[in-house]
Amino acid sequence: MSFEVVRGRQLHAAQGGAEKKGAAKNNAKPAENPGKTFDRAKFFKDSGSGIQERGRILRWSEKVGFKEVSDKVVIPEATERQYRIFLRNHYENLAQLNTDAPEVLSDPRHKYDRLLFDAMKGEGGQMNENNLEKFLAQPRGWEITTLLLDHQIALRDMAHGVMVQAKRDSIRDPLHMPGGKATVADIQALTHLGFGEKLDRLRARKFEAIKGDALESKYLKVMTGVDVDDFQVAHGSADVSLIPGRNRTSSTSAEKLDAEQKSLRRTRRFFLKDGLGVKDRYLDASAEEWLMKKHRPLDGLRMYDSIFQRFNDPDFNPLNPGGGLTLSDTANVENWMKAREAGLSEMMEGYLDNLSMSPDVKQMKEKLDAVTAIANGEAAQKLAKTGALEAKKTAIEGDQQRVTKEGGIQQRFIDVKKQADAVAEARKKAAENGVASGSLTDIETELETSRKHLEGRAKGTGAYLVSSLKGQLLAVQKSMPVDVEAEVTATMAALGIGLRDPAYKSRRAIEKSAAEDAYKAAHFVPLETAITEQTARITKLTEAQTAIQKAQEGLKPGGEKAKAYDQANTDMVDAWTKTTAIRTTPPLVVDEALLRSGKTVDEIMETINSVYEATKASGTPLGWAKELNGTEGRRHQVMRAMAQAKLNDTMGTYATTHIAEVADRIDLTDIAGVWRLTDGELLGMSKAELSAEMAKPTHLGHALNPAEELKITNAQEAAKERLKLAAEAHTWMNEQFGGKAADLADQIVVLNATSEPVRAKAILEISARKDVMKESAANMILNKGEYTDRTASDVVTGPVGLRLSPEERAAKVPMGYLKAMQDWFKYQTGVVENNRLVKSRGKRFEEIYEAMPPAKYAELMNRHLGFGVPEPRPTASDAQKARFVNVVLARMDREIGTNINITELRRAPSEIIEQLFDETIATAA
Amino acid sequence: MTTKEIIKILPVSEALKKKLFDGYDTMPEAEKSVLVELLWDMYDALYQLLLEKNLALARIDLESNKREVNPDFFRAVEEQTLKDMQENAAKGINDADISQARGKLEELIQGKKN
């Protein structure tokens, strides 16, 4: 638990522990861990042509779509647990390898094993858990682990295949093990589905190559327990058999290998699916699995049972070996696939026969009904919706004001931070002038010393001391004429130029001038320089002194600002304590996670209100009723609690790397402790001043001993960081509110721009043409150029241009968009009723354009073909939207038929219609 | 390939195929929407099975040195699968059409007899 919670405990102790019980309960609850979060860009790079994999392991992902496009990748805790288990086991094997055959780890082919081993190694060769932690703190660690995981899966898969093929005693295919139940993983293992894994497997399957490689044989033995000396491979063929006489082999069991590889496969799947958000259909899922998940007509096991029963039925498959399924025989492959097709057929037969009763049809009907109702709805519906959104937006903007306005809840933190920064700057200036401590007392002492040195008098005394700089200057000024005269006389005598010499006068003048210059240089200049320096130093120290005094105003012990700042902190912790004490029992939980979720005040209050409703019957309701949400006190409480929750998080992170600083601050500011300082005091006073302060009776007269003085420096550092993070927590909250308000503004713009009934009618039209849209997928590949044509409709010439209506020309839209709209709406023939044209092509286009503008079409293709092109906001300019449309069309041009195949193109309309249905229903809700 | 044509090649009983084919155009919208979804998913699943079968057969060829792993390995198998799929579909549609025509003919003959 983070430091700030401890601080909360301290306050409760000081407040008589009135709320201690609630706080303790909260403290006892483990904080929800959303999992490690990384930038998606660490795993995938945007090369300008789309999201591509960063490392070898994700090469296949060029055509991968994500469940949702996000800048972040969150690895679930459960996935991390699986990876840790794998890494620990793998390290043990590597340690064994390092002992038995260290040369293997030096082999470049095992550079990632070496890298992992070195990164994890602790004292005595044991794995160091801290190193494991550091390893998984980096995206590269996950990438390398996945790479190793893939290799281990391939090795075990290869070894398992070899052992089954060798028909070793007691080794049976998992499908034929007594009591064995077939699973999806069995299907995958047996049929070797998937391109990415398949390539790895084909390479790894070269058992013969491994057998002929001493290093690789040792690696295989340690990693999988398979001894290559137990088996022989007929040269040039894939026939593997046990070496005669080695029936009792030293190799591990096939069952163990199989179980291991399935477990590793699941781990890999968790990471790719739940961690990176790779869609199901790219996870090498089998055809049966896809259909089963999508339509659920039968449970998986029943379907697989039916497949295996057929395959094992001698009438259906006379070639069935009766023990062990290998796909090394052509006829066997044919029969296996026939069995699967028959399984599919059986599954579909039952489902299709009762189609009208299926849950899917029921669900679709509900959606269609809802969208139809909207299509027939009144404009009032839209107005009501807009009004509700406006009200929400106003409430959020009010909360933003509560945070940022003069005297708002953020004010104290910003004020004090400015002051603390000013104190730090003034102290820095003092330090530049030799007062490292920056303490006002030390500055005053230094000023006194400097003044004495300069002027030779202390404050209030009149006489110069000869030893002072100015005194010395006066003295040399006074003695100069005499000294110069003596020097010149001596020089003239030495030159032998007497009074009667005609040159005497002029020569003497020259010598005098030279002697004066030399005297000044020798005596005046150093003193004048020293005086200038000393004067400047006094000026700077005086400035620093004034600046510190000014900046410290109110931050000294008992100072008004220090008290206000400490009160703001107390208010924040109190608000957090009160709020998180409301309820921690699922499903309604008011906790750190909720407060940090980025929800608005009203959204958080919805949960609090629900708790109230759920508990009011008990007579001791928790939370509060909805009617009280508007009171300033409640809103302030929730906002302060949000800021504190954020601060707990960031301060907790700081505490992991600044343990001493945080501990010392707690010690010095604990109001039930010895020192009882405040954050305000720590921020406003120097170390020397704090030492002096702590010796005062107000702080129990307990002065720090010299060894403890480091505590002050540490505590000041932590207080400074805390202040910075507290200010940032408020800024974060304000940004969250700002983001929500902007989203609402976008929704309002969209609502105002599009009539809901018009959009809903268009969606019903698209839905009714789903079959045609799917059929046109092949056309999209064959005539891709037409669908990705970025030529604007107003400049198109030739027969195509001539056919365009004035409305289509005026819209200046890409021709590719018009082609798609024709597929979706068949608008170009206009509307014909009773053999009479009742709506022209142009008027029909205008309807389509309103319901499905180019930017919306591009957004749908972008999402459902998984391009990940950043989408413009609804409030973006027309030029920005047009650029987005062109980028998406260009991506379609590049990727359709290469990275995006016909199956994906066919699935896109279904997903698009589903999205449009859900959006329409949600907007009208 | 059209959605209705998929019904003709579905690996289900003739009776069910007929029921779906005949009812397709007048089917309630929700039912039709789900059916369209299912038909294409099924079509893709059949393609996937065929692809896996061809990959398994190609692997056998690899292991018996009848073919080699090269960068075009998967593309070649995919192309072969697309071709097989088109042929199977064409044959299935043709068979269904012949069967339908035969049925209609029988109905006519029966009618004349009666």
What can you see in these coordinates?
- The complex is a heterodimer of chains A (925) and B (114).
- Chain A has 39 helices and 8 strands.
- Chain A is mostly helical and 925 residues long.
- In chain A, strands 1-4 form a two-stranded antiparallel ribbon.
- The model of chain A is unreliable at 1-32, 44-69, 167-205, 280-285, 296-301 and 321-326 (pLDDT under 50).
- Chain B has 114 residues and is mainly α.
- Chain B has one domain.
- Helix content of chain B is 82%, strand content 0%.
- Chain B is elongated.
- At the A-B interface, helix 9, helix 13, helix 15, helix 16 and helix 31 of A face helix 3 of B.
Overview in brief:
The complex is a heterodimer of chains A (925) and B (114). By secondary structure, chain A is mainly alpha-helical.
Provide key terms for this protein.
heterodimer, A: 925 residues, mainly alpha, two-stranded antiparallel ribbon, 39 helices, extended, disordered N terminus, B: 114 residues, 82% helix, 0% strand
Number of helices of chain B: 4
Strand fraction of chain B equals under 5%
Q: What is the end-to-end distance of chain B?
A: 39 Å
The main sheet of chain A comes to: 2 strands, antiparallel
Radius of gyration of chain A, CA atoms, in whole angstroms: 41 Å
How would you write the strand order of the largest sheet of chain A? 1-4
The averaged pLDDT of chain B comes out at 80
Q: What is the percent of helical residues of chain B?
A: over 70%
Number of domains of chain B: 1
Dominant shape of chain A: extended
Number of helices of chain A: 39
Helix-and-strand structural type of chain A: mainly alpha
Silhouette of chain B? elongated
Number of strands of chain B: 0
Main structural class of chain B: mainly alpha
Describe the largest sheet of chain B.
none
